[in-house]
Specification:
single chain, 67 residues, mainly beta, 67% strand, elongated
């Protein structure tokens, strides 16, 4: 999964799947960060939270899904 934030400040991306949680802080400079989700179920929870007074937009893309 790729995650990017554009604007000012930073965002925290949280990905939950099958009891495992991965948290990554991303600077809002537009450069993508890659997260690998292992043993993903049919549903994955993705949450994005602003860090401090961050503002802008966030986007994610699932690059490949192999059940």
């Amino acid at each position: 999964m790729s995650f990017a934030c554009a604007g000012s400040g930073a965002a925290e991306a949280t990905v939950q799947s099958k009891g495992a949680t991965e948290v990554k802080e991303v600077e809002c400079g537009g450069a993508p960060v890659h997260l690998r989700v292992h043993d993903a179920p049919s549903r994955v929870t993705i949450d994005v939270t602003a860090v401090g007074k961050a503002s802008g937009m966030a986007a994610y893309r699932i690059a490949e899904f192999t059940p």
